[in-house]
Amino acid sequence: MTKILPTAKPFLARMNDTLAQSKVDEDRQFVTALGRGLTLLAGFEHHEQLSHQQLCQLTLLPKATVTRLIYTLTTLGFLRTTVEGQYRLGSSAVRLSAQAWSRHDVVAFAEPLLRQFASQNEVSVNLATEIEGEMRYLACCRSPARLSVNLQVGSAVPVARTAIGRAFYAISTPTRQAVITANLQTHLSKDEFEQAQTTLADASTYYDTHGYTLSDGEFSTDILAVAVGVFDVATGHYAYSLNASVPRANWQAEDYAAMIVPKLQALAERIGHGA
Q: What is the pLDDT of residues 196-235, one digit of tens each?
């Protein structure tokens, strides 16, 4: 059972105060039902998943109201039900958050650096983070060389089959790795999940030894990619991963890694330090 943390209350309290004040002011322009729905979504600010009872406690809304809101938000894809019968943010919320992340300070700072890196090294370079068992792209700069996969901000790729996903898993804390594993188990078949577990365990060992991860034609048969983690000094943890990819026909994997990895690591450090 998820513990309700006091850090979630101030934000929700402000929203509840606004709801209450609109009622006092008899504000006809204020849509109360919408305000309640957004208040319920705000309950997930500090929680991976919540039960019906916990949502009632957090939002101070009646049980029947919470039931209707959950049904509506689930139907629209803003919430989804877990195997434990609790609730998590759904794909619609994830898509909106990806757009917000694309305007995040770190991402905004990284974008010109990525463009410069892509141009100078003739590679495609991308910044991403894990959301619901997928790597969500936050910034993308394409190489002049044509690649078979055209990814944009908001695009999602598999965690286990990509260098950028493997790097993110490798640098994550055990707690975050457990969350990623749970997300994968929810979204993959049994065979796919077992393969993903093996792949990510091997990738973590490889990263510990070499300082990067590699995908040699596994996500797309003609793409060679390496990736590293990005440590965000503002938050004090690894929040992103960064990849650089080229057409496989142009490089041997070891030669490419030897050339690009030190540069990519330097780029990751610069992005993480915001300087």
A: 999 999 999 999 999 999 999 888 889 999 999 999 887 7
Query: Which of 60, 89, 118 marks a domain boundary?
Result: 89
Judge if 18 and 63 occupy the same domain.
yes
At residue 97's C-alpha, the angle toward residues 123 and 53, to 5°, is 145
What distance in Å separates the CA atoms of residue 147 and residue 113, rounded to the nearest whole number? Answer: 21
Range of the domain at 258: 96-273
DSSP-derived pairing of the beta strands 79-81 and 87-89: antiparallel
> CB-based contacts of 140: which residues, under 8 Å, 6+ apart?
114, 124, 125, 126, 127, 151, 152, 153, 155
**What is the pTM (predicted TM-score) of this model?**
0.65
> Among 225, 226, 198, 228, which Cα is nearest to 211's?
228
Q: What is the CATH number of the domain that holds 63?
A: 1.10.10.10
DSSP class of residue 4 equals P
Domain count, the chain: 2
Cβ(63)–Cβ(56) below 8 Å: yes
CA separation, residue 91 to residues 24, 75, 247 (Å): 35, 11, 31
Residues 85, 120: one domain?
A: no
Q: What is the CATH number of the domain that holds 107?
A: 3.30.450.40
- Cα–Cα distances in angstroms (integers) from residue 220 to residues 157, 169, 211, 216, 217, in the given order: 11, 20, 23, 8, 5
49-91 tens-digit pLDDT: 899 999 999 888 999 999 999 999 999 989 999 888 899 988 7
Measured CA to CA, the distance from residue 263 to residue 77 in angstroms comes to 40
